[in-house]
Design goal:
heterodimer; A: mainly alpha; 12 helices; B: globular
C-alpha cells in the first residue's frame, strides 16, 4: 500500500518535468538537426552566457566608454568625449615610484599602497593558513571544533569584520582598555600609519584565512599516508618531510590559494574601508577605495577618471589570471610527463 | 553608439528609480537629532487632511544624501522631495515649484533671502526652503573648565586664546585633546575667513588659496602636531569623508568643540545632565569672528512624476505655523522670515542649556563676514571644501608638506572647474 502511494506521489511530482521535457523535445530536436552536436553546447551555455553578458560584459563595455568621457552627467550621451585624456591624466607621472610627482597622486598612492598590501598580506596569509592547516591536519583534541573556529570569520560580512575590529582597535577600544587595565601604555592603533597598515593586514588575514586553510587542508588530506609512513621508517626529519613530500604534493592547492589570495588582495576594500576609512591620511587608501571615492563618494567626484582607474585595475587582474592559467597548464603538463 | 549608450544607461538607471507614482510622494530625509520623528508627525497630520496623497518618509543616513542621492539625480531619478545640504551644486536637479505653489509671494516674502542658495545663478525659481538655518560655532565643556580652574575665554577671544585655555584644561583634566573641529572643509571655512581668506575670485570662479587660508590652516596643522587638536578626527579617513567629533565632546574627551548650531539638540539629548556646556560662537581671527551660515534645505526634485502633489506637501511644510512648530520641537534656527520677525519661540526642551545656546548662535550670526555669507550661494563651495579636507588631512598625517598642499588644493579645484565645462 505504502509502496503504491510512493509510486503515485513520485509519478505526480515527475509529471510536470516529463511534460516539459516532451514539450522541449520538439524544438531541441530541430535545433540539433540544424546545428549538430556543437549547436547543443551553444544551446545549453546560452543562459549562462546571457547572464554573464548582462551582469559582466555590458557593464564592462559601458565602463570602458565612461573612461573616455568627462563631466558629472550620468548618461553617456550627455558626457563629453575626451578620448584617452583620463588615462593620460592617471599615467602623468614624473617618477612612477614617487606618487607625489604624479598629477593624480592619490591614484599612485593607492597603487603603491595596494602593491605593498598585496605582497605583505598574501605572504603572511599563506604562511598563517599553511601553519593552521598543518596543525588542523594533526590528530589534536577537538579538531572539528578548531576547524569551525578558524572558518567562522569567513561567514561574517566584511562590514561586520571591519566594525568589530574598529571597536577593538580604536582609541577608546577594547584593546586599549585591556592595556590600560594592565598598567601598560595605550596606542592609537588606527591613527599611526604603520600600526594602521598592520591592523589592515592582520584583520584581512583573520577574516579570510579560514577559507584558504580549508583548501590547503583538503590538499593535505589528499596526500597518501604511505609516503609519510615510508619517510618515518627511513627516519627522515620532519622538516625534510615537509619540504620533500608535503610541499611538492600540496603545490596545486597552494597555487590556487596564491592566485585567489592575490586577486582578493588587489580588490581589497570593504573591511579596510570600515576599519580605517583609508586613513590615517591616505596610508590605507587602496585602489578599489580610490575608484569608489573618485566615482561616487568624493566632493570632487569624477566618474570618468574612476572608470579609467578601474579599467587599469582590471588589466592588472587579467594579467594575474593569465599567469595563473599559464602556471596551471605548466603544472598539468609536468604532471602528465611524470 | 550614443543611442546604444543612452539605452543601456537608462536601463541601469531605471533599476534605481525611487520616485513615487501619482498620489504618492516620497521624501528622502536624514536626521541629526529628533527631526525625523517631528517631520513624520507633521506629515501624518497632512495626510489626515489630504487622504488622497500618501507621503512616505524614507529616513536615510546622511552619507546616503551625500553619496547616493547625487548619483540618482544624475541618472534622472531620485525621490520626489529630499532634505539636502549640498544645495547649490545640485541646483540643476531641483524642481521649480513657483507655478505650482498656492502663493508664490508668500514664498518670496518668507524665504527670499535664502532662495539663491538653492537655485541656479540668475534664476527666480522656487525650489524649496531651508528646514533650518545653521551657523558654525564652538561649544565648551563648562564643567571641565571649572574643574580645571581655567577661565573660559570671553567674547572677542581669538582661536589662539581658546586653544591655549583648552590646552590648560586638557593638561589638568587629562582629556584626549584640547579641542576638535569636524572633518569637513565647510567647518574650517568660517575660521579661514576670520583670518582674511577669500575663496571667490573676481570672475566668480575659485580664487587660489590665499594668506587667510594659509594662516589658519597652518595653525590647525601645528595644533594637531602638538596633540592639541584631536588628530583622529581628521586623519582617520581618506578623501573628503565627513567625520564629526561630537561623540568626543559628548564623552568629555575634549573641552572645546567647533561644529555648529545643528548639534544643539544632539548635545542636549546625549549629554543630558552629564556636564554643563555652553555655545561660544566663533573664535576670532585677524579679520573677524565669523562662522559660516548654511543649513539643510527641503527641495523638490525635478524628476518627480507627481509635481502637483509635491507642491501641496511643500506648501504645507513651509506654512508659518508648521515651520514654527518644527523649529521649536527640533531646536533648529528657523529660516522663515515671518517666524523670525515675530519671535516668541517656545523651545521644546527642559534643558536650561539649550535656550542660551540658541541665543548665542543667533547673536553670532550677526558677526559673519561678507566672504562667509557669499559661500552658501556659491556653486564652487563644495569643490573648495572637498579639496581642503582631502589635502589638509594628508598634511596632518605627515604625508605632504603644507607648501605642496596649497598647490594640490588649487589643482584639485581647477580640475573640478574644468570637469564641469
Amino acid at each position: 500500500m505504502i509502496n503504491r502511494l510512493k509510486h503515485w506521489i513520485g509519478a505526480a511530482l515527475a509529471a510536470p518535468v516529463i511534460w516539459l521535457a516532451m514539450l522541449a523535445n520538439v524544438p531541441l530536436k530541430a535545433w540539433q538537426k540544424a546545428t549538430g552536436t556543437g549547436g547543443m553546447a551553444v544551446f545549453f551555455l546560452a543562459p549562462n552566457m546571457a547572464i554573464f553578458a548582462v551582469f559582466v560584459l555590458v557593464p564592462f563595455v559601458i565602463n570602458f566608454f565612461y573612461s573616455a568621457t568627462s563631466g558629472s552627467a550620468f548618461f553617456l550621451a550627455d558626457r563629453n568625449f575626451v578620448g584617452t585624456e583620463q588615462y593620460a591624466r592617471l599615467l602623468d607621472c614624473g617618477n612612477y615610484l614617487d606618487p607625489s610627482s604624479c598629477r593624480e597622486d592619490l591614484f599612485w598612492k593607492a597603487v603603491s599602497n595596494t602593491g605593498l598590501f598585496v605582497v605583505v598580506q598574501v605572504t603572511a596569509l599563506i604562511v598563517v593558513s599553511m601553519i593552521t592547516a598543518l596543525i588542523l591536519n594533526r590528530e589534536i583534541a577537538g579538531r572539528s571544533f578548531w576547524r569551525a573556529v578558524f572558518f567562522f570569520p569567513v561567514l561574517l560580512s566584511p562590514v561586520v569584520v571591519g566594525l568589530i575590529w574598529r571597536w577593538i582597535l580604536q582609541r577608546q577600544g577594547l584593546l586599549n582598555f585591556i592595556l590600560y587595565e594592565m598598567g601598560l601604555d595605550t596606542h592609537d592603533w588606527l591613527i599611526e600609519s604603520s600600526s594602521a597598515f598592520t591592523a589592515a593586514v592582520a584583520v584581512s588575514i583573520w577574516a579570510h584565512m579560514g577559507f584558504y586553510t580549508l583548501i590547503l587542508l583538503a590538499g593535505l588530506q589528499a596526500i597518501p599516508r604511505d609516503l609519510y609512513e615510508a619517510a618515518e621508517m627511513d627516519g627522515t626529519p620532519p622538516s625534510r618531510v615537509f619540504w620533500r613530500i608535503t610541499l611538492p604534493l600540496l603545490m596545486p592547492n597552494l597555487l590556487v590559494v596564491v592566485i585567489l589570495a592575490l586577486i582578493r588582495a588587489v580588490q581589497i576594500f570593504d573591511e579596510v574601508y570600515v576599519l580605517t576609512g583609508g586613513g590615517p591620511g591616505t596610508s590605507t587608501l587602496y585602489i578599489t577605495q580610490y575608484i569608489y571615492e573618485v566615482g561616487f563618494a568624493s566632493l570632487l567626484r569624477n566618474p570618468g577618471l574612476a572608470a579609467a582607474a578601474s579599467i587599469l585595475m582590471g588589466a592588472v587582474l587579467v594579467v594575474l589570471t593569465l599567469v595563473q592559467l599559464q602556471i596551471g597548464r605548466r603544472n598539468e603538463r609536468k604532471g602528465a610527463r611524470e | 553608439m550614443k543611442k546604444a549608450g543612452t539605452i543601456l544607461t537608462a536601463l541601469a538607471a531605471s533599476l534605481m528609480a525611487t520616485s513615487a507614482m501619482a498620489g504618492e510622494v516620497r521624501v528622502m530625509w536624514y536626521s541629526d537629532g529628533v527631526e525625523g520623528e517631528v517631520i513624520q508627525d507633521l506629515l501624518n497630520r497632512f495626510m489626515k487632511d489630504n487622504p488622497d496623497i500618501k507621503v512616505t518618509l524614507d529616513n536615510v543616513a546622511y552619507k546616503v544624501i551625500q553619496e547616493q542621492l547625487p548619483i540618482q539625480l544624475e541618472a534622472g531619478q531620485g525621490p520626489d522631495i529630499a532634505r539636502v545640504t549640498n544645495i547649490k551644486e545640485l541646483a540643476k536637479h531641483w524642481l521649480d515649484i513657483r507655478p505650482l505653489v498656492a502663493d508664490a509671494k508668500y514664498w518670496d516674502d518668507n524665504f527670499g533671502n535664502t532662495m539663491d542658495w538653492m537655485r541656479p545663478d540668475g534664476s527666480n525659481a522656487i525650489t524649496g526652503f531651508m528646514t533650518q538655518l545653521t551657523l558654525t560655532g564652538g561649544f565648551a565643556n563648562k564643567t571641565l573648565f571649572e574643574q580645571a580652574g581655567v577661565a573660559m575665554p570671553g567674547e572677542k577671544a581669538t582661536w589662539d586664546d581658546w586653544v591655549k585655555a583648552s590646552a590648560e584644561v586638557m593638561k589638568s583634566q587629562k582629556t584626549a585633546a584640547a579641542f576638535a573641529i569636524d572633518r569637513t572643509g565647510h567647518r574650517i571655512s568660517g575660521p579661514n575667513i576670520s583670518y582674511g581668506a577669500n575663496y571667490i575670485g573676481a570672475d566668480g570662479k575659485p580664487a587660489p588659496v590665499d594668506v587667510g587660508v594659509k594662516e589658519f590652516v597652518t595653525k590647525l596643522v601645528n595644533w594637531t602636531k602638538d596633540g592639541l587638536m584631536l588628530k583622529e578626527t581628521w586623519v582617520s579617513a581618506a578623501g573628503s569623508t565627513y567625520r564629526a567629533a561630537a561623540d568626543d565632546f559628548i564623552n568629555a574627551q575634549i573641552p572645546f568643540y567647533y561644529s555648529g548650531s545643528w548639534q544643539i539638540a544632539n548635545l542636549s539629548t546625549k549629554i543630558g545632565d552629564g556636564f554643563d556646556w555652553v555655545a561660544t560662537g566663533s573664535p576670532c581671527g585677524t579679520a573677524g569672528c565669523s562662522g559660516l551660515k548654511g543649513g539643510a534645505a527641503l527641495v523638490a526634485i525635478k524628476y518627480t512624476k507627481n509635481a502637483a502633489d509635491v507642491a501641496k506637501v511643500m506648501d504645507y511644510l513651509s506654512r508659518e505655523d508648521v515651520v514654527k512648530e518644527f523649529s521649536e520641537r527640533t531646536l533648529f534656527l528657523p529660516a522663515h522670515n515671518g517666524v523670525v520677525a515675530k519671535g516668541g519661540m517656545n523651545w521644546s526642551t527642559k534643558d536650561k542649556t539649550v535656550g542660551p545656546a540658541l541665543d548665542a548662535f543667533v547673536k553670532a550670526s550677526a558677526q559673519t563676514l561678507p566672504g562667509a555669507d557669499a559661500l552658501p550661494a556659491w556653486k564652487w563651495a563644495t569643490a573648495y571644501y572637498g579639496a581642503l579636507v582631502t589635502r589638509i588631512s594628508q598634511v596632518m598625517a605627515g604625508e605632504m608638506p603644507l607648501d605642496d598642499a596649497w598647490a594640490r588644493i588649487d589643482q584639485d579645484i581647477a580640475d573640478k572647474v574644468a570637469q564641469a565645462k
